[in-house]
Amino acid sequence: MYELYHLVLNAGSEEKQELMFTVSIIDDDPMFREALKDYLQSMKIEQVECFSTGEEFILSMKKSDKRLVICDFDFGTYSKMNGLQVMEEIRKRDPKIPVIILSAQDNIAIALKALKNGAVDYYMKGTESTFTTVLTTILKINELQRLRKNERDYIRALVAGSVVSIIVIGFLLFLLSR
User: What sections of 12-129 are H helices per DSSP?
Assistant: First the structure.
């Protein structure tokens, strides 16, 4: 949560928000897509890309991608993947990519299904707080990933230090036994 307070307190500064991933917005409504992108960039989040369909996004995915996906639920036609199908395809390729589902539909069953299938959050489009709640979720996920990375780095350093200690102790014992 520190990141959100820092962002608000330094809204006038030129300091960019460094994320551990690129934010990918998938939505068939170009006005909503651009409005969300503009809002995130106004909040100093520069790593934002947009896609008009889930299929377009899936084609752009690479193995080494570090992304957070914000995906519309309904793309307006049965010939295109819906948000749950996009999320399912993302999970097959990389289950670690967080997905936020957005929908204009006020349907609790869809929200529950999205969350049950692995969405990190589900928000209604068109509410006053949609953009700020999405931003808050992005910052929370970024902070969690940063903490996990720091924990992994710390564990690696401990293991490396332990290995070096074992080698030094073994070498000293070898020298003492001569």
Answer: 30-42, 54-60, 83-93, 108-116
